Amino acid sequence: xxxxxxxxxxxxxxxxxxxxxxxxxxxxxxxxxxxxxxxxxxxxxxxxxxxxxxxxxxxxxxxxxxxxxxxxxxxxxxxxxxxxxxxxxxxxxxxxxxxxxxxxxxxxxxxxxxxxxxxxxxxxxxxxxxxxxxxxxxxxxxxxxxxxxxxxxxxxxxxxxxxxxxxxxxxxxxxxxxxxxxxxxxxxxxxxxxxxxxxxxxxxxxxxxxxxxxxxxxxxxxxxxxxxxxxxxxxxxxxxxxxxxxxxxxxxxxxxxxxxxxxxxxxxxxxxxxxxxxxxxxxxxxxxxxxxxxxxxxxxxxxxxxxxxxxxxxxxxxxxxxxxxxxxxxxxxxxxxxxxxxxxxxxxxxxxxxxxxxxxx
Length: 361
What we know:
The protein is of the alpha/beta class and about 350 residues long. The chain has 12 helices and 9 strands. The strands form 3 sheets. A 4-stranded mixed beta sheet has the order 6-7-9-8. Strands 3-4-5 form a 3-stranded antiparallel beta sheet, with no helix packed on it. The protein has a two-stranded antiparallel sheet with strand order 1-2. Strand 6 (about 80-85), helix 2 and strand 7 (about 130) form a beta-alpha-beta unit. Helix 2 (about 90-110) crosses helix 5, helix 5 crosses helix 8 and helix 8 packs across helix 10. Mean pLDDT is about 90; it is low at about 355-360.
């Protein structure tokens, strides 16, 4: 299912985080089950004979809608947040708003891929987010994933701090959305791999995840990535431990499919009659669920080159500064197989935005 980022009253293009249409000034709410925007009247919209209200966090930038029987008044994405700063901490709340924006974009993509999301409030090991601020706490925040809970430091929304971390860790790319995509990869490794044969194939490609993570962490930060790592891994961090290799590869799968979906939605393609890049057209698809990974990666190879050229024409570094060598392509093929064999039906996707009795309480 594709998102429809247009204002209903005037049909003007709007971004996924839009609260008010910049063209006609209509107040808008985003409806996850249909992936559409709806105009609001007194903070509500009627959708398929049901009343939906604005999320109680709209004042902090959330534009999602909540069905009338949701007792907490919070949308599905906001309910995934288990821990957040106190509302009196306005500095931290400003950073939280930007992180929640990235998280909503992540949830939309996961829903578009048909991936299951079980909330931390519904079951042990369910997906949840502890969003903390090292600045407000006055101490470091240990970021990472454990038993479905993703912990992030909101201070990473500060450009100088995020850039310092990017340089320190030797990363060519670091954004909050990218960080969320990486951490959610840890969650899905345990959710999507459910049998020994698949685990065996995973270990063949990524290594044995049962190896000591603590030892791997110490080794990585004392010695760095091994020489020649580029021939087998997508990034230096992926070399640290098989868990990190899987999560990094999963994040790149989301980078690739998300960007191609956006290109398809706005009609970007490479016309062989006018481009010097290749002799046949490249037309991105909104979904590659029914396509082989080879087509996905071939389309991405050419489109990413085009995006990189556009970035360079503006004086920026490459949009996608990574090389997909053969071992990485095989790993992406494994991720593609996992993701395309796990999609939910439309009815099941609707349940993503529908609270359970436990959540209503």
